[in-house]
Amino acid sequence: MTSAIVMRAAGGPEVLQWEPVAVAEPQAHEVVLRHTAIGVNFHDAYVRSGLYKTLALPGIPGIEAAGVVEAVGRDVRDFRPGDRVAYVTRQYGAYAERRVIGADLLVPLPDGMSDIMAASSLLKGLTAQMLVQRVYPIQKGDWVLVHAAAGGVGTLLCQWARHLGANVIGTVGSPEKVPLALAAGCHSVVRYREEDFVARVHEITGGAGVQVAYDAVGKDTFFGSLQCLAPFGHLANYGQASGAVPAFEVSMLFPKSNSLSRPSVFQHVRTPELLREAAKRYFDACLKGALDIQESQELPLRDAARAHALLEDRARLRPLVLRPIEVPGPPA
C-alpha cells in the first residue's frame, strides 16, 4: 500500500483527497517508482475541473514527476533499482508516493539535474524544445513573439530564443511580470492588457513583423498573433489559457503566405527514442547555462488541493512541486 491523491468527481480543488491505494506488482516492461518530486501543471487543473475528461474516475491525477526506481520487471534493461529518473505521461497517476509505470516512459536524470528541477520543468522543457527546435527552428536574427513571457514555458522560450540569437518580444498581463520577462531574455516587453500588442510588435520590428509567434493564450491573442507575422511567418498555437480559438477561414493565412500549427508535445515524444533525445537536449541546455530554471514552491503531496488553488491564482510567479512526506532531506 501507498498513499495518493484521488479524485472521485470533477470540481474545485476540494475534490483532491488523500487516500491509501494499492501498488501493483510490476509487469515485465514496468518499474516500481518511488516519487521524490511531482510537478503541478495547468493540465492537472483542467483534468480536475472537468474541462479535460481524460481521467477515468475515481483516479489519481498528475502527469509529471521524478523519483527513484525501486524494482524492475524482468524485461527492463535500461534501468535498475536506485536509478534517478523523470517522466511525463498521459497515463496519469503521478500524485502518489509510489506507482508502477512503463520503463519506456522514463528518462534518466543526469548529474546536476535535481529531482525538483526535473519534476517542475520537464513538461515545460520538452514543450520549449519542441517549439524552438522542431516546430520552428529559430535562426540567428529572427524576430520572435512569445506570449505569456513570464510563465513557465514562456520564460524557457524567451531564454532559449535569445540563446539562439533571436530578437525576443514578450507579452505579459501585469506590471509585476515585466521584470521576469526581461530577466528571461526579452529585448522588449508589451503589457497586452494595456497596450495594443499588434501595433507595438509592428513598431518594434519596424513594420516587418515576426518570423514566429508562440501563443499559449489562445482566443484572446490568436488573431492578433496572425497579424504580427512577417511574410512566411509561422504561428505556433500550443495552448488556450483564455479559451478555445474560434473557427476561422484558412484563407486568412494567404495574404502573407503564413503557416499555422497546433503542436502536441506527446506526439513530439511519441517513442522512447524521441523522448530521450528531446529530454537530453533540454537537460543539456539547462546544464550548459542556456536555461535558468525558476526556483519552485514546494508543498506536501497531501496538500495538492492547496497547490491547485495557488496554481489558479494569476498572481503566482513560481512553479509548484508536490513532495511526498516520506522523502528525507533535500532534493537529490
From TrEMBL:
InterPro entries named in the record: ADH-like_C, ADH-like_N, ER, GroES-like_sf, NAD(P)-bd_dom_sf, QOR-like, Quin_OxRdtase/zeta-crystal_CS
Family matches, as Gene3D superfamilies: Medium-chain alcohol dehydrogenases, catalytic domain, NAD(P)-binding Rossmann-like Domain
Keywords: NADP, Oxidoreductase
One Pfam family linked to the record: ADH_zinc_N
Top-level taxon of origin: Bacteria
Residue ranges of every copy of the Enoyl reductase (ER) domain listed in the record: 11-322
CDD domains: QOR2
Name the UniProt record assigns to this protein: Quinone oxidoreductase
